[in-house]
Specification:
Elements: H1 4-18, H2 28-44, H3 49-61, H4 73-87, H5 92-104, H6 114-123, H7 132-145, H8 152-165, H9 171-176, H10 178-189
Helix pairs in contact: 1-3, 2-3, 2-6, 3-5, 3-6, 4-5, 5-6, 8-10
């Protein structure tokens, strides 16, 4: 399971140099947040060895595709991750698992394995945290700058629809993130603090 720190260095360097500056949400801060949340799951669930290693790699590479595209970035990112992992002579089985972790984060999420459930919930952990307003504000700026939305009304409508359709996948997130996510949804619906 060697190569993690080298991979981490390569990926963070590529993200730092390659991500478009108008991506105010899908940036290194987001990647490190997802990695941090994955590390909390690893600790909490006592995930050991290969699974912990692969989950950390998945967190680091899950949004690499944004370097080149906002459309189907998961497929592009999975290919980019594969090339890096191959260059580091990582196990082909591990590469496929990491590709699966990246693809699992595609919206709407449909994770099949425990690791996929963890990375999905880590990716959207902020939906049920107290820093939701701040982080969603970054997403608002990004979607506006990439012409996904035009107006504040578009954004509010998109957030309501997304929060209503989203489900957490792990017991931890259902218990500890869902209630706050519902609070934010109601706040948006009532147009408070938003």
């Amino acid at each position: 399971m060697t190569g993690y720190f080298k991979l981490r260095r390569i990926v963070l360097e590529e993200l730092k140099n390659g991500l478009p500056k108008n991506l105010t949400y899908h940036d290194i801060g987001h990647v490190l947040d997802v990695l941090g949340v994955c590390n909390q799951y690893i600790k909490r669930k006592k995930i050991k060895g290969t699974d912990a290693y692969l989950l950390r790699i998945g967190a680091l590479v899950h949004d690499m595709g944004f370097i080149t595209t906002t459309q189907n970035h998961e497929e592009v990112g999975a290919d980019m991750a594969k090339k890096i992992m191959e260059s580091l002579k990582m196990d082909p089985k591990h590469i496929e698992i990491v590709r699966g972790l990246i693809m699992a984060t595609k919206i709407p999420q449909n994770p099949q394995t425990e690791l996929q459930k963890i990375i999905c919930d880590s990716d959207l952990d902020y939906l049920g945290r107290k820093d939701y307003v701040e982080i969603s504000g970054k997403l608002y700026q990004e979607l506006k700058s990439t012409n996904v939305i035009k107006t504040r009304e578009d954004w509010v409508e998109l957030q309501i629809k997304f929060l209503k359709s989203h489900s957490f996948h792990t017991d931890f997130a259902r218990k500890n993130r869902e209630p706050k996510k519902q609070f934010w949804l109601q706040s948006i619906i009532k147009n408070e603090n938003y």
